[in-house]
Amino acid sequence: MQINISQEGEKIKKEFEEAPAEKKQIIDSELRQDIVTGDWVVIATGRAKRPEDFSRAEYSTQKLADHLDSDGCLFCDPKESGQEKDVLIYSKSDGDWTLKVFPNKYPAFSRGKVPRSLEEGPYFAMTGTGYHEVIVSRDHFKHIPDLEIIEVAEIIDAFQDRYLELMKKKSVNYITIFHNFGKEAGASIAHPHSQLIAIPVISPYIKQELDGAELYYKSLRKCVYCEMAEYEGMAKKRIVFENETFIAFCPFASRSAFEIWIMPKKHNSYFERITDEEKIKLAEVLKNSLGAIKKTINNTPYNFYIHTSPCDGKDYRRYHWHIEILPHTSTWAGFELETGIEISMIQPEEAARALRENLNNN
Amino acid sequence: MQINISQEGEKIKKEFEEAPAEKKQIIDSELRQDIVTGDWVVIATGRAKRPEDFSRAEYSTQKLADHLDSDGCLFCDPKESGQEKDVLIYSKSDGDWTLKVFPNKYPAFSRGKVPRSLEEGPYFAMTGTGYHEVIVSRDHFKHIPDLEIIEVAEIIDAFQDRYLELMKKKSVNYITIFHNFGKEAGASIAHPHSQLIAIPVISPYIKQELDGAELYYKSLRKCVYCEMAEYEGMAKKRIVFENETFIAFCPFASRSAFEIWIMPKKHNSYFERITDEEKIKLAEVLKNSLGAIKKTINNTPYNFYIHTSPCDGKDYRRYHWHIEILPHTSTWAGFELETGIEISMIQPEEAARALRENLNNN
After folding, report:
1. A180 near A30, Cβ under 8 Å?
2. Pairwise CB contact (< 8 Å): B339 & A204
3. Neighboring chain A residues of B344 at a CB cutoff of 8 Å
4. Residue B362 belongs to some domain of the structure
């Protein structure tokens, strides 16, 4: 990134090694395929122990997340706490770090050269080969809405850096980048952090979107996401925030109340091609969108993630990368689990209006 | 049902009316379609009020579920509490009720004759026409594992009764039947109950399974579910419980730890064709499976639901109805929401072993 960050700071980059030490943390990770739907699940048996550990009250993640204080925080000094091994460090000119990237101590995927296939009866599985990293910003108490735009851009820059590095690996065909805020959204450590998981398979949700975008193009000769971005920009009723480069809006078919999608206005299939200028623009929209959620629904936990084209070398020019922000405003119960149809209790138009009223312009 | 229940009891059946009173409860319900994926969401704005109501702490459902006591329970005397209007009542010969079915007071779908389509720009939606009912067993403290087999069979009988009634409606193309146990699984009322929602669209998860079963049949000339049931019965490693008619096992590609599927051993596409004898057999397997979950993972919240063929009049002979039980053993965080790939922390083989050890044979 050729902008302010790198001018004021020094970036130390180290190639991650194929650390065998990592494998001690995880007994086994398997990708198993559902023979009906073709969907994948991960069986990662590294973290949990006995059946009793699965009961709600025993959740280790919940216990960790209750640890909101910075005292003894594993990510405030990841080196000291034994979290950090091989690290990508962004630092200020005074040598102090601003952002670190390191392998997840409890990875859902194990590092390795090539996924090995495993078969049993009619079923198919493969070894859960992949990379699982954590992206940690410095301040224990400052979440994305509280950071400066330039600091948010630094996080996006780290996403791109790691993406470009990991997409080269032979076993990697898709790279997921996501952020969990709050205990109920699965954040097991309160210190602000994002995660990156590089996997050998194309995930079902992405596949569905790739297929949908392809189909839409075939019948209407237009990118379905460009269509949406244009229409929302014109209709204005669901916009939360926009600048020249990105638009943030509550999607027409919102799955959760106050859901927001952030989309580049210009067609672009690949997140990893984001320019330095675009990072600043995206940082502005992301900070404002999350800030509006924070103010409107009282610090409700949320997840956001990047949906982008696979990096398996195929052509995905009909796809359009974007970010989806999903606040945890409801519990998935029987109906949603059975059908995949989510029930949202507020009209996206109403949600967008409320979010717009709570935009911080700092 | 021609078995013990109806011999010892009397069943009073009343046609549900198209109650206009219901509409006062729900301002609006809309089914909106995602233009990329074709998936549906429901926007049901009847329950919530202001944006602040969406923040975690304010969850009205959570407040209700904390109400574990039977004092003032809305379902212990649904008539008194104003929950019950038109009702299907199962009662014992002494006139006391054992099971009631009535419309949900806060339905996600509004009753009406025909769904009306709504368009906006590139988007498509329709009125959320449907039926939403609650099936309540009598005892406030007895959940399915604590009931007698015959009492569980009565619940299954009520599912079938209502299914057969609602499938006749013109606007109904799919009927979902599900059960939420515990607050985290979305049970807003502690009193044991199941729910039924009859909707005009085929849900994405069912569509995926229908397509998968069709595809498997086309290439291997066999029902994929029969294949699974046979293999699991032979391999034995993932079985939880079985009798002559049904098999319960932890699926090879389990999405959550301790997930169980219950499947008729004989090919059958339509749940609503279940016989009285099969209901008793299913009740035995369901009671034992949920009992094993209760004992093994310490009363962890769970959902179960029936996956069966749509009732839109088309031919679904390649499909095989079954029940899926999903314990809430983890939180869906960024990775799962982004990819649709779930991470389970225990091997299904291990889970099944633990569950088998905790079977109650009462």
Report:
1. no
2. yes
3. 41-44
4. no
Same domain for B13 and B129, yes or no, is yes
**B348 and B252 in contact (C-beta within 8 Å)?**
yes
Residues A149 and A72 in one domain: yes
Q: B190: which 2 tokens? A: 């502690």
Distances (CA, A) of B65 to A16, A327, B186, B195: 48, 21, 9, 16
Rounded distance between C-alpha atoms, residue A311 and residue A165, angstroms: 11
Annotated catalytic residues of A are 193
A362 lies in a domain? Answer: no
Number of domains in chain B: 2
Are residue B189 and residue B47 in the same domain, yes or no?
yes
Which residue in B47, B221, B224, B339 has the most chain A C-beta atoms within 10 A of its own C-beta, making it the best mutation to test that interface?
Answer: B339
Whether A338 and B307 lie within 8 Å, measured CB to CB: yes
- Last residue in a domain, options A185, A201, A217: A201
pTM: 0.87
Q: What is the CATH number of the domain that holds A175?
A: 3.30.428.10
DSSP string, A121-141: TTEEEEE-B-EEEEEEES-SS
Residue at B158: amino acid letter: A
- B153 within domain boundaries: yes
Assess whether B306 and B339 both reside in one domain.
Answer: yes
Q: Do A133 and A253 share a structural domain? A: no
In this structure, how many other beta carbons lie within 10 angstroms of the beta carbon of residue B94?
8
Q: Based on the domain organization, do A114 and A179 belong to the same domain?
A: yes
Residue in B36, B178, B347 closest to A334 by CB: B178
pLDDT (tens, 9 = 90+) of chain B, 362 residues, equals 433 333 222 332 333 333 333 333 444 788 999 999 988 988 887 655 566 666 644 333 333 344 456 777 888 888 777 776 666 777 777 778 889 998 888 788 887 667 788 889 999 999 888 999 999 999 999 999 999 999 999 999 999 999 999 999 988 999 999 999 988 888 888 899 999 999 999 988 999 999 999 999 999 999 999 999 999 999 999 999 999 999 999 999 998 899 999 999 999 999 999 999 999 999 999 999 999 999 999 888 999 999 999 999 999 999 999 999 999 887 778 888 888 888 888 899 999 999 999 996 54
**CB-CB neighbors (< 8 A) of B132 in chain A:** none
Range(s) of the domain holding residue B225:
205-357
Strand, helix or coil at A144? Answer: helix
Interface confidence (ipTM) of the complex: 0.83
